[in-house]
């Protein structure tokens, strides 16, 4: 049997399915793998099932002369923590888990849109603090979401699921920025320049992958272009945002609020961001449901099984 390393505890059913086919070691630690562990994983296992935070960068591959590992079957759709080109050069394939994450992540985007626009986090803190003095007509007025325009940046699987929820559920006109035009089952306007989109919408949502091409896509210029009543939502990767520029925009009231599930240097969330009442902060909850995490794990196992049969994994990247 091939030796498989699962780098974090996963739902029982996933580990059981993996044990049916492989000699499995589960690393009983919820923190990302450290430098030595990453290298040892490549040296000592035939297959590795890593996840977010396990940073397999070019240096890791360069340090391991003849890796025993032949597949990194990532748990999650986003694989910006793996240098895929360096992996390939080292003879290691990479797969991910697209689709399994789509609806759950779109649901969290809608949670953030509503929480940010309707000041739900701020309201919850007010009640919890015992400081609420009762309802009155001008208390905590937020942005009415129904009918407002949403701008989706990255009209992929998750972007489309967010757009559909906004369109069908909240009657929101949809605009988007994407490398290519999308054929969608509802009306949506493609805008050529990101800064133009930013200036035209009431809610701007980041749904692009992380990586070098999208690093700091949302910078001071984009926040400057946004309308002062608009909200910025990020469910993609923290690194797509210049976090310092976002903090500055919020502090200066250039935008009304932000809803974030991801951060530039996770799990570190700058104190300046945590202090702002206009920000809703979630701890990377996009796929955090047992059903979803189980589906992600099963997809990763399917990729491993296909590879073991000598086939190309269904979700090789
Ligand atoms: N918050 C969470 O828990 C969570 C959960 C799942 C996924 N994610 C993130 O969401 C991302 C998107 O997932 P998906 O399944 O929708 O991916 P996808 O590949 O279906 O969609 C990505 C979209 O972004 C566009 N895009 C890619 N690179 C681009 C670039 N350089 N410039 C402009 N547009 C670009 C693509 O054309 C595509 O339309 C993942 O890569 C992951 O980082 C976060
Ligand atoms: O990329 C993904 O799938 C998520 O961020 C991890 O749940």
UniProtKB/TrEMBL annotation:
Which Pfam families is this protein grouped with? Answer: 2-Hacid_dh, 2-Hacid_dh_C
The top EC class, named as a word, is oxidoreductase
Q: Where is the D-isomer specific 2-hydroxyacid dehydrogenase catalytic domain?
A: 5-317
Q: PROSITE patterns from the xrefs?
A: D_2_HYDROXYACID_DH_1 (PS00065)
Give the Enzyme Commission number. 1.1.1.29
- What would you give as a GO molecular function for this chain, any one? NAD binding
Entry's InterPro entries?
A: D-isomer_2-hydroxyacid_DH, D-isomer_2_OHA_DH_cat_dom, D-isomer_DH_CS1, D-isomer_DH_NAD-bd, NAD(P)-bd_dom_sf
The record's annotation in Gene3D superfamilies points to: NAD(P)-binding Rossmann-like Domain
Q: Where is the D-isomer specific 2-hydroxyacid dehydrogenase NAD-binding domain?
A: 110-286
- Cellular component GO terms, alphabetically? cytosol
Instruction: Name the domain of life this protein comes from.
Output: Bacteria
Tell me the keywords, alphabetical order: NAD, Oxidoreductase
Give the family from UniProt.
Belongs to the D-isomer specific 2-hydroxyacid dehydrogenase family.
Put simply, this protein is called Glycerate dehydrogenase
Name the source organism.
Shimia marina
């Amino acid at each position: 049997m091939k030796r498989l390393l699962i780098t974090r505890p996963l739902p029982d059913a996933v580990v059981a399915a993996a044990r049916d086919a492989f000699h499995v070691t589960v690393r009983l630690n919820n923190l990302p793998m450290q430098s030595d562990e990453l290298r040892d994983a490549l040296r000592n296992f035939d297959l590795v099932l890593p996840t977010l935070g396990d940073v397999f960068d070019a240096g890791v591959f360069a340090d391991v002369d003849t890796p025993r590992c032949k597949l990194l079957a990532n748990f999650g759709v986003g694989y910006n923590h793996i240098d895929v080109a360096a992996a390939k050069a080292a003879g290691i394939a990479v797969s991910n888990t697209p689709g399994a994450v789509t609806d759950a992540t779109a649901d969290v985007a809608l949670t953030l849109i509503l929480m940010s626009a309707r000041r739900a986090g701020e309201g919850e803190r007010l009640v919890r603090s015992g400081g609420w003095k009762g309802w009155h007509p001008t208390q905590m007025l937020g942005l009415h979401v129904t009918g407002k325009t949403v701008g989706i940046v990255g009209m992929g699987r998750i972007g489309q699921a967010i757009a559909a929820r906004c369109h069908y559920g909240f009657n929101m006109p949809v605009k988007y920025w994407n490398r290519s035009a999308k054929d969608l089952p509802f009306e949506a306007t493609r805008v050529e320049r990101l800064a133009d989109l930013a200036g035209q919408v009431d809610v701007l949502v980041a749904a692009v992958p992380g990586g070098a091409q999208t690093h700091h896509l949302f910078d001071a210029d984009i926040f400057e272009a946004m309308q002062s009543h608009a909200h910025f939502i990020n469910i993609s990767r923290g690194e797509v945002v210049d976090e310092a520029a976002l903090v500055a925009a919020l502090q200066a009231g250039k935008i009304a609020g932000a809803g974030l599930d991801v951060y530039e240097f996770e799990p570190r969330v700058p104190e300046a961001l945590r202090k702002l009442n206009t920000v809703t902060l979630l701890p990377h909850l996009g796929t955090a449901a047992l059903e979803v995490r189980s589906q992600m794990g099963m997809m990763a196992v399917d990729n491993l099984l296909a590879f073991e049969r000598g086939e190309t994994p269904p979700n090789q990247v």
